[in-house]
Design a protein that fits this description.
The protein is of the alpha+beta class. The protein has two domains: 137 residues, OB fold (Dihydrolipoamide Acetyltransferase, E2P); 256 residues, BirA Bifunctional Protein, domain 2 (2-Layer Sandwich), CATH 3.30.930.10. It is built from 18 helices and 18 strands. The longest helix is centred in the middle third of the chain and has 23 residues. The protein starts with a helix and ends in a 25-residue tail after the last helix.
Length: 521
Amino acid sequence: MSDMNLTTSGKIMKDKHVRRWTEQFSEQMDVRLDKRKKLEESGSNPYKNGFKPDTKFSDLTAKYGHMTKEEIGETPTYKVAGRVMMVRDFGKAAFLQCDDGFSRFQLYISKQLTSEKGLEEYKHLDFGDIVYVEGDVFKTMKGDLALNAREFSILTKSIRPLPEKFHGLTDTELRYRMRYVDMIMSHETREKLRRRSEIIRFIREYFYKNDFLEVETPMMHSVAGGAAAKPFKTHHNALDMELSLRIAPELHLKRLVVGGYNKVFEINRCFRNEGLSLKHNPEFTSIEFYWAYATYLDLMDFTEDLLVGIAQNVLKTDIIKFGEHEINLKGPYARMTMREAVAKHTHSSMDQINDRPHLLELLKGTNADLKKAQGLSWGKLLVLCFEELVEAKLIQPTFITEYPTEVSPLSRRNDIHPEFVDRFEFFMNGWEIGNAFSELNNPTDQLDRFADQAMAKEAGDDEASDVDYDFVRALEYGMPPTAGQGIGIDRLVMILTDSHTIRDVILFPLLKKEHFFSEEE
């Protein structure tokens, strides 16, 4: 095909895409497009640049909100910008409610005070437009603060109408799919996601303060490992090799400890090819950190101090609410072995908990597959009893220790009781938030446990990992005694912001692909 034909073909395809998109425009959008055209014809760019606000609405409220009209008097000229969320037009004057991304404020347009150019621009205004105003502060007859618009400009013309002004997006699916609209309409959504950022910032600074080095490790792995999970697969064309998206950064971070970094952390994105739920998203954020010459006991103290710090410095309260529960973050936090927790919440003795038939009896009436449970070892039965009968009851912050070795392939065996490992999981609101242990640094033991995982994978367990021989080799050079932990940031933020679905605390949660046009087109 000639270059001319390619150009013609490309233009036809481009015109098709533009036509298909604009054909679905509503009558309201056509009206807005006409206003945009009139702005252009008057010599005004509907997408201006270079207009810089010099103050936030919240600053104006803080400075003048408590003053009377007389106390305010004459003020300096302020430059502000934001999105118009409401228009009340009285003919000769109008009040606009404007949102600058932090708070809302009134702008006053009048024939007496607003420049002729500004009034001309105002004629083409729509709810949702982004505007720039220069003016002074005053109080209305009702006692509300407002800004006299001496100069007024439309910076960005909004072509697509926003939802109904007072209720925002009521369709849950649309809220997550069009997060940008949800954030425009809902101050609560915007503040919740801002709070997430504040929590992550505090966590990062806490680790810096404690002399941890922040690092970045690969997201594409030739051997999936570091957790029991089914990975996402991809293919590298140039190297002609299969790769997995990271399910955990653990093994790479521990390689860094071998290399001489004694304190490392990574706030990381992980990917697990598993189902969606209120608490699960295939792509999620966690923090993993490793600390040489520390034990899992040190990490309990460290984790408690971190949570207390978030409560005091970010949340500004020790008591938070999640649904019907009140959770006390002040500390000290409860600490129990898994056996003690199962005994307490099933009213059993420790001797009974050590009895396999008793554990099977406890599982009757739960959601556990009793036929499958018959074939489980005592250690796996204990974990199953904990998951079915105890986990949901751990509302207050609680550390659960002494996990069976067989369910902890990367943990160090306890010196006195090798059937258990030096590990804890941290629970709050009945959810697992963190998982930590004194790390396994015996290469022979590690290879043996990798081999067990490989056997499980061969038998059909798609969450079991392959043998990472390079990691075994790294351990053979010697890794100092080390403790490490992973904390799920998404779940933690859910609890700290009283959010009942993980989608509420992720900016852009994974959704099914949207089809804009019918298949016939």
